[in-house]
Amino acid sequence: MSDLRNEVMPPPDSVIFADGLTKRYGEASAVDQISFNIKKGEVFGLLGPNGAGKTTTILMMLGLTEISSGKISVLGYDPARQPLQVKRRVGYLPDSVGFYDHLTAVENLAYTAKLMGLSLKERTERIADALKRVRLSDVAHKRVATFSRGMRQRLGLAEIIVKKAEIAILDEPTSGLDPQSTLEFLDLIRHLKAEGTTVLLSSHLLDQVQRICDRVALFQAGHIVLMGSVAELSVQVLGAGFVVEVEAEGTGIARRLATIPGVSNVETVAADRFRMTAERDVRPDAARAVVAVDGSLKRLSVDEPSLEAIYARYFQGKASGDMRDAA
Amino acid sequence: MRREGSPFQGVGTVFAKELTDNISSARMLVLELLIVLTALAALYGAISNLRTNTAEDPFLLLRLFTLSSSPLPSFVAILGFLIPLMAIGLGFDSVNSEFNRRTLSRILAQPIYRDALLIGKFLAGLATLAVNLTALWLMVIGLGLLFLGVPPGTEEILRSLAFLVIAIFYAGVWLALAMLLSIVFRSPATAALVALGIWLFLTVLWPMLAPAFAQIIAPPDPRYAALGLQTPATGLWSQFLMRVSPNDLFAEAMLAILSPTTRTLGAVFLDQLRGALMGAPLPIGESLMIAWPQTVGLIASNIVLFVAGYILFQRQEVRA
């Protein structure tokens, strides 16, 4: 029996809530004691190398694989006991999604729409509408066998739109797509978010995740090692979030720049180039500072914190830490 | 832990989709042609045989099913051999192809249980086989009417209907086996090869092996051999082992149903036959009683094989 006093209750605005979620295959744990909380309307990214436990976590959310221990609730339902309730409200686009090749796009969607329990009228309307949104109306009556990977991926998204899902779970949605299809797909995800759909997406393509996610969770060997918005993570891992580069001529610029609140470090790269590390975007203050010492400002740029840098730094730190432990 | 909702939600949708796929597939067309052509040849043999040797026979229509004219075996024997092929052709890739096409996780993410997918697929396969067998049955009756010119009696129709029902259950056994193998083996080619191997073993090799095993288990008594008789224990064992094969169960049930003079399918003592009018047909109820154990055996094999597949499928991981 679970101890009621110890049970953690999900926050009121949470749509997916996991507490101590664990999946074991024999001795090995694919997912080990992870806890997270996804708020309504946000785009949440599951990041990490292949085999880190992202897909297993997703399958547990849908009740498609058994939970070894811990708790998960999706929209207030328990996926292990009420999978139909969960699956009625959650759309899932699996990693490299497949369709029945001998059927057309419309027929494929009609089959799943029937499984969703939609009436003929609703089905026809929603399918036509969804295909229009993912720009597949022209090929609606073509066999899926002729579709490219990007088109299949968009057809999978159309299925989620047909479902009018409250949560869209996308597993590696952009892997294997060409840059143009990727941009289009990310745009479609943004539209979903604009309509109030909560989006959960897993990926190992860091820059894309950064472009679109409000918050990310970094998976490693079945654990969530980092979680938060990109800005939060950069402060946590890199020590500071923003790198502002100033190119200006004048005297005493470096000293003046260092006095700006929030700036942790000023590096003089060349005689007229300075690199500042700060916890916020300090460009306006930097401009004022240069003007204050009568310098001539030539260029001002900011490097947004990159997930790639965070990722690399985190695993670097981890590796050297492990080496120290081993020694 | 009880799960919520009906396991049958979505069965109808899966059934309709799979039935459409089955009936419109090229594979099915080839199998149908194979069976119809072989069956036609067998029927032609039976009809020409009946026409030349017309004796008075109250069960002329049933003779169409059972009469063989060499070199072709009878219609029923051909069905006993080819129905499994058709069922295997329908079932060997039913589950593993969903894995390989990567459609399984997408379908199971819809609000249905896995039960619905498996039950829908099995019922659709069974319905396809039933449609085909019914068409064959109608063909036999139609050809009988055309070429023999004798309208079938009520009892003949009832007996041939019993044949149809038992044939569908027989097909179900092989369909359930093929689906089980499609769950066990991820590659459709492996599943098909194993299914065909089992089919050949049970229909061709087992009838030869069973008597050999029976002789090992119960060695023949030389005293019976001296009289030119089979040792009862050996005979019983041989029959018992033969019945492991659904092919044998089907053949025995057909013998009882389609040859109304059949009084028993096993060995009997002479005193059990006392008072029997040898060669007189049994009423249909009695024939059904004789065929009932074999029919139950076929139905039970259906259920056992399907349940085995069901349990494995429920425990299988969805991710490819």
Give a short summary of the structure.
The complex is a heterodimer of chains A (327) and B (320). Chain A is of the alpha/beta class. Chain A has 11 helices and 13 strands.
Q: What does this entry look like structurally?
A:
The complex is a heterodimer of chains A (327) and B (320). Chain A is an alpha/beta fold and 327 residues long. In chain A, 38% of the residues lie in helices and 28% in strands. The radius of gyration of chain A is 24 Å and the shape is globular. The relative contact order of chain B is 0.13. Chains A and B meet through helix 1, helix 2, strand 5 and helix 3 of A and helix 1 and helix 6 of B.
Features:
heterodimer; A: 327 residues; alpha/beta; six-stranded mixed sheet; four-stranded antiparallel sheet; 11 helices; 28% strand; globular; disordered N terminus; B: 320 residues; mainly alpha; 13 helices
How are the SSEs ordered, and which strands pair?
The complex is a heterodimer of chains A (327) and B (320).
Chain A (H helix, E strand, L loop, with lengths): L13 E12 L2 E12 L3 E5 L6 H8 L7 E6 L8 H7 E4 L11 H12 L3 H14 L15 H15 L3 E5 L7 H16 L3 E6 L2 H7 L2 E6 L2 E6 L1 H9 L3 E8 L3 H6 L4 E8 L2 E6 L4 H10 L3 E8 L3 H20 L1
Parallel strand pairs in A: 3-7, 3-8, 5-6, 6-7
Antiparallel strand pairs in A: 1-2, 1-4, 8-9, 10-12, 10-13, 11-12
Chain B lengths: L10 H14 L1 H27 L7 H7 L8 H17 L4 H5 L3 H5 L5 H35 L5 H31 L3 H30 L4 H5 L5 H11 L3 H13 L25 H32 L5
Helix pairs in contact in B: 1-7, 2-3, 2-4, 2-7, 3-7, 4-7, 4-8, 4-9, 4-12, 7-8, 7-13, 8-9, 8-12, 8-13, 9-11, 12-13
